[in-house]
Design a protein that fits this description.
single chain, two-stranded parallel sheet, 35% helix, Rossmann fold
Amino acid sequence: MKKNILIAGGTGLIGSRLCQILDKKYSIYILTRGTSRTQGDITFCHWNIDNEIVEFSNDIEFDAVINLTGAGIADKRWTEARKKVLIDSRTRTTQLLAKKMAELKHKPKVYVGASAIGFYGNRGDEKLDEGSSAGLGFLSECCELWEKAHEEVRPYVERYSLLRIGIVLSRKGGALPKLILPARLGGSGYFGNGKAYYPWIHIDDVCGMILSLVENDHLSGVYNGTSNEPERLKDIAKAIKKVFASYALTLPVPSMFLKIGLGEMSEMLLNSTRVYAPKWTELPFPYKYPSLLEALQDLKEREV
């Protein structure tokens, strides 16, 4: 019998890829702001945060609930109104999901909630792992509120995990296409002095982590969704140049220009977050792309 899996944020970058690689043993339900419908093997269930509507039956027995919801951090300048959207799109959606899960006749076996490495804030060269404290600044504040909202789900599931996700490398969206384009135009750029650490992960590896948290009964708690090799931004620019545009020049974008152009949002590009993932390496988790060059080379060959 197929297992039922519910995904909030199933049409986003990670959710879309996750649906592609899920084994046929899962029946997939995706929460959507659109109309409820069935499309192929996927059932789309309408939800509306403002009206507190979630359209799926309380009789469904979900083996797993995966929550990846959240408006794009880099989509718009961080005005006060936009910051409220970024927080509400993570907290209010999660709170509504918790309310609906409380009504289910059967407890889901496992819940996997997304957070982000922004939780740790700007920490320079400090080595960070899952036990490190929260940082300062808007990204940290947003992630702390997000994780607090996830806690509301805990009473309604048998097992509970959070994944603090790093910079996801994909050809379908996120940071990588924005970094490849200028390289192909002749300039592989980095921000500030290029010494900031960026924790990255190949999209297939982050999907693999989510599935590991779903399918392994002994896994619970907080995990970093990153490779175990954080790279300095200047080295990432050099790697992108090597793989995608060897002729490009590696050029800096002065931090002053970013602060003028982006305001507070520039912290997203200038923060240094040297995050490691010891809980995955101790398992050990079978990274498909443990090194940055391996990840970029695969993404050159496959547009995932």
